[in-house]
Amino acid sequence: MQTPDSFGTIGSTIKVAAGHYVDLVNPDPATLDLETIAAALGKLCRFGGHTCQFYSVAEHSWMCCRLANYDECPEEVMRAVLLHDAAEAYLGDIVKPLKLLLPEYCRLEERMERAIMERFDVDLVGHADKIRAYDRQMLKVERNALLTEDNEPWADFDTIPDRNVDLAFYSPIQAASRFLSVAASLGVELGE
């Protein structure tokens, strides 16, 4: 008999939409593919879904990449910026205040990011400063567009440069398609 803790699972794996399993504790880079990442990120809503309208992690990711492109970053930086949240396709998007309380999640995220770096030949660690800068710039844009009733000051927001970009609010399918299109333009390998 299965316990409630293990019901519906096979060890530490999840079955992804592509039909295969991915181990969350020891991810095999060969099991990761860009189509699965794009589809999952297209369905994940930023800010835990607490927004005035749907806005996906996939759109956030390619918007960050768009900022890097505006700033004429090298393609290797843009690839890393595009894939900076790819681990969330397998682990889910956890809002920052909760993530800080879950050290085991952070360890799993690091493992998944290592597998993503190996699978897609991107350097998330070496480009961490650029990733963080574009992530924060988009966070500021998103907060202003999606959390319009929030007048509370957020830590260090005045230090983040303003960027003049508009959000498209694409559907999950549109966001995933755009993510894949941007990835292809940057030479990110699709997968099997």
From TrEMBL:
Domain of life, per lineage: Bacteria
Residue ranges annotated for the HD domain, each copy included: 56-120
InterPro entries registered for this protein in UniProt: HD_domain
Classification via Pfam families: HD_3 (PF13023)
Protein name: HD domain-containing protein
